[in-house]
């Protein structure tokens, strides 16, 4: 046996294999935990049957039972002495056997084990009270509260017992002993309520006095005051509120106290007192902590106040909002402006001074002018308020002086401040001080605005010599400023010194750099016109045209000549326009040339003759629509765009295009006329023959037109005609083209040595073109097209004579005509598409 057991022990035990679950899909019927518990409850599987009841028949059996139970309890206690539950069960069993002495003994033994267990003391006292052992219960409570004075449950049970025994003195004595330990607030309220139940109001007031000193919170003071108010002691309640305000002072002010105080006075119909309380609190409590105070004040004024009171509340609320904004961001100058505007409308001078000083103390952190633009207006408004509202001139002067010291003039300045300071000194009749301020400004930080303001001041004072000196300094500072030159010259003109003004103008136009030279030249010319010096004006226009060829200068020059009285004024103006037209011929901006011609035409309509007007009209360009490629910034093609261009008759480069354009226009008119005749034709045979002849003529004209266009293009590409010659050659060649000569004839006139070679090349190109036209159905010869047209016409006549006048024959003829029109349009459009760069897409006269 031993060996067997030893061998068995030496072998490793095998772990049984766990059966693998092949099907891991969820079962069709799922069982939840709730279902399992419900089934267990229904079957009552865990319910144990109650123990059988034991019936005791005699005293010996009872003693035996008691001995057995006591032995069990003692064994349990012996096993776990610190478990209070065993002690409590033991004591309660002894109590159930009416063995109070034994129960007390058990409790005393338990107290020796755990004397800080509150439950143990409560059970002990409850046993004594249940068995009407009052003195024993008092003894237990006295011992308990002596050992555990912070156990509020023991105190509550103790006072409850005494009150149930109607032992008022004993209960009050227990409360007094309890209050000496300064318990929480609710137990003080228990004491107060105890006294109120016995109508002892004075004692309750005394308790409240001690209570607010032990727990000095705002809420407790408010409860004390409401206690007095509830019992009809209005004066005492007001006195409590006043004591509370004094007790907390200004360091620990709370809006709840003042809201409660104001509501108390509102209940007493003391509205003046309410306003005083609200204003006192709003002036001393931080604004962010007075939201409810503002709200209560607004509600009170809306209910009992007048318009002034309501406005005062609103103003106070707005002040609070502005204070919060400027506190969050001191450099928010817009908030400062709004705050100061509010105080200026409803506030004292001292308040306004204080806020202005606080505002100007927030200097922008960065010395950049864009950050100072809003800030500087604080100083301006401050100075204006002191001068206009406060009437304190000395303080105003100090404000201006402090402002000028704050501005970093080496980096930037504000001319407005200097000028306002000088104007203030003038209003105070201190002219020397104003000049001193402006002189200091020009010396430290010269600006155009400062010069202009100083000059304006001296002009108002009629100090013209000072004005001349200032203008000289001004022009030394900024010689490119045309406005200053013009103003200086106008001053001399007003003073009657024409030669000095003319010298100033001459000096001005000789400057190498000017900001607005056109305005300066215009002013100089107007000056000479006012002086009635037409010859000087012509010289000025000549000098100006040497510098610029702007169209407005030519138009102004021509209008001037037209305005000068004389018999030849129209001729002079016409001459200027001709010169301008020749000058602008090389200009890329064709719109300027068109403006000149339109102005010339207007002049001829007013003061010219019919011949001169016709001459100008011949020079007017034609507006055509063209297409050009559009490229993006990366150089990629972005498609085509349409634009309008102007073609002038004087430009030879555009003559071939114009000729082709005219031919296309004539073909278009002929086509429209043929279509109109086709629509208005009759059904008779003769009329159909006439219509067929017209259609054949239109087709022949279209085919001839297309052949002509292709021949012209090939000649231009092969001959490489130079159409960018001089003006004289362009006009001569344009005349030849207008008289009907071809481009080849013009080339012969220019280069007779190459006539033989060019004729041979032309013959070869004609042969090639004839061969291409024979191969291409769109470029067939006129003879073949005439033969085909005759055959089609004969077929139509046969069909018309053989067939009856039914609707089917007429519809077939209309279809033939429609197909013929479509084919003709397709041919012409194909010819146009081959030359996409031509200008026949649109034409506007």
From TrEMBL:
Q: Name one GO biological process term.
A: mRNA splicing, via spliceosome
**Compositional bias segments (type: Acidic residues):** 675-694, 720-731, 831-845
Looking up SUPFAM superfamilies in the UniProt record yields: TPR-like
Arranged from A to Z, the UniProt key words for this protein are: mRNA processing, mRNA splicing, Nucleus, Phosphoprotein, Repeat, Spliceosome
Q: What is its main location?
A: nucleus
- Which residues does the UniProt record annotate as the domain Pre-mRNA-splicing factor Syf1/CRNKL1-like C-terminal HAT-repeats? 87-305, 337-540
Pfam families (UniProt xref): HAT_Syf1_CNRKL1_C
Question: Where is composition skewed (Basic and acidic residues) in this entry?
Answer: 748-776, 819-830
Which family does the record claim for this protein?
Belongs to the crooked-neck family.
* Protein name per the record: Crooked neck-like protein 1
Q: Which organism is it from?
A: Branchiostoma floridae (Florida lancelet)
């Amino acid at each position: 046996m031993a060996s067997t057991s030893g061998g068995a022990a030496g072998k490793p035990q095998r772990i049984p294999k766990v059966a693998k679950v092949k099907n891991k899909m969820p079962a069709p019927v799922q069982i939840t935990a709730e279902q399992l518990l419900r089934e267990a409850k229904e079957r009552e599987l865990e319910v144990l049957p109650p123990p059988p009841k034991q019936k005791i028949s005699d005293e010996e059996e009872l003693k035996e039972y008691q001995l057995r139970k006591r032995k069990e309890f003692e064994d349990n206690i012996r096993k776990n002495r610190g478990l209070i539950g065993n002690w409590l069960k033991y004591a309660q069993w002894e109590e159930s056997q009416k063995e109070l002495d034994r129960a007390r003994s058990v409790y005393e033994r338990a107290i020796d084990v755990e004397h800080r267990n509150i439950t143990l003391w409560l059970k002990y006292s409850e046993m004594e009270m249940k068995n009407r052992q009052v003195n024993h219960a008092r003894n237990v409570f006295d011992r308990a509260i002596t050992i555990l004075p912070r156990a509020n449950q023991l105190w509550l049970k103790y006072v409850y017992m005494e009150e149930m025994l109607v032992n008022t003195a004993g209960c009050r004595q227990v409360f007094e002993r309890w209050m000496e330990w300064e318990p929480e607030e609710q137990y003080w309220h228990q004491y107060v309520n105890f006294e109120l139940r016995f109508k002892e109001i004075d004692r309750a007031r005394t308790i409240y006095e001690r209570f607010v000193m032990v727990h000095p919170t705002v809420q407790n003071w408010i409860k004390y005051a409401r206690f007095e108010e509830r019992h009809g002691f209005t004066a005492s309640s007001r006195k409590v509120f006043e004591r509370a305000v004094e007790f907390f002072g200004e360091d620990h002010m709370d809006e709840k106290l003042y809201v409660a105080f104001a509501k108390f006075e509102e209940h007493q119909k003391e509205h003046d007192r309410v306003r005083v309380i609200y204003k006192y609190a709003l002036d001393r409590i931080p604004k962010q902590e007075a939201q409810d105070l503002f709200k209560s004040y607004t509600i009170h004024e809306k209910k009992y106040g007048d318009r002034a009171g309501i406005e005062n509340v609103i103003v106070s609320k707005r002040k609070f909002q502005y204070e919060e904004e400027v506190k969050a961001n001191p450099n928010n100058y817009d908030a400062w402006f709004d705050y100061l505007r509010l105080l200026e409308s409803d506030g004292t001078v001292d308040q306004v001074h204080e806020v202005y000083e606080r505002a100007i103390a927030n200097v922008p952190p960065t010395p950049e002018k864009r950050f100072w633009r809003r800030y500087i207006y604080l100083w301006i408004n401050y100075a204006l308020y002191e001068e206009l509202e406060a009437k304190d001139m000395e303080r105003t002067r100090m404000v201006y002086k402090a402002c000028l010291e704050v501005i970093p003039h080496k980096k930037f300045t504000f001319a407005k401040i200097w000028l306002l300071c000088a104007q203030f000194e003038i209003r105070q009749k201190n002219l020397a001080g104003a000049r001193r301020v402006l002189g200091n400004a020009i010396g430290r930080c010269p600006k155009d605005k400062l010069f202009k303001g100083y000059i304006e001041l001296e002009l108002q004072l009629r100090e013209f010599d000072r004005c001349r000196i200032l203008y000289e300094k001004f022009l030394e500072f900024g010689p490119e400023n045309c406005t200053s030159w013009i103003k200086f010259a106008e001053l001399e003109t007003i003073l009657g010194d024409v030669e000095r003004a003319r010298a100033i103008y001459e000096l001005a136009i000789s400057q190498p750099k000017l900001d607005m030279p056109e305005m300066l030249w215009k002013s100089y010319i107007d000056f000479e016109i006012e002086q009635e010096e037409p010859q000087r004006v012509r010289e000025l226009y000549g000098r100006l045209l040497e510098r610029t060829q702007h169209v407005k200068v030519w138009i102004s020059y021509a209008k001037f000549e037209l305005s000068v009285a004389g018999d030849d004024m129209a001729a002079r103006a016409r001459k200027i326009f001709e010169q301008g037209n020749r000058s602008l011929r090389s200009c890329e901006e064709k719109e300027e040339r068109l403006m000149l011609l339109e102005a010339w035409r207007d002049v001829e309509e007013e003061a010219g003759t019919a011949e001169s007007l016709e001459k100008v009209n011949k020079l007017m360009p034609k507006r055509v629509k063209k297409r050009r490629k559009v490229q993006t910034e990366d150089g990629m093609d972005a498609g085509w765009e349409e634009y309008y261009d102007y073609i002038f008759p004087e430009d030879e480069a555009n003559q071939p295009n114009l000729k082709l354009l005219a031919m296309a226009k004539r073909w278009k008119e002929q086509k429209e006329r043929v279509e109109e005749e086709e629509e208005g034709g009759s059904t008779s045979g003769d009329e159909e023959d006439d219509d067929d002849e017209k259609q054949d003529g239109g087709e022949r004209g279209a085919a001839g037109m297309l052949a002509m266009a292709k021949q012209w293009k090939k000649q231009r590409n092969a001959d490489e005609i130079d159409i960018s010659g001089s003006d004289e050659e362009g006009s001569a060649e344009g005349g030849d083209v207008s008289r009907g000569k071809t481009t080849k004839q013009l080339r012969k006139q220019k280069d007779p040595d190459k006539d033989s070679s060019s004729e041979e090349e032309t013959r070869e190109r004609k042969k090639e073109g004839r061969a291409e036209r024979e191969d291409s159905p769109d470029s067939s010869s006129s003879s073949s097209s005439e033969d085909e047209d005759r055959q089609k016409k004969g077929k139509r006549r046969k069909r018309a004579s053989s067939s009856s006048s039914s609707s089917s024959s007429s519809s077939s003829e209309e279809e033939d005509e429609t197909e013929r029109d479509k084919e003709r349009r397709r041919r012409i459009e194909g010819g146009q598409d081959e030359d996409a760069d031509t200008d026949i897409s649109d034409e506007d006269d």
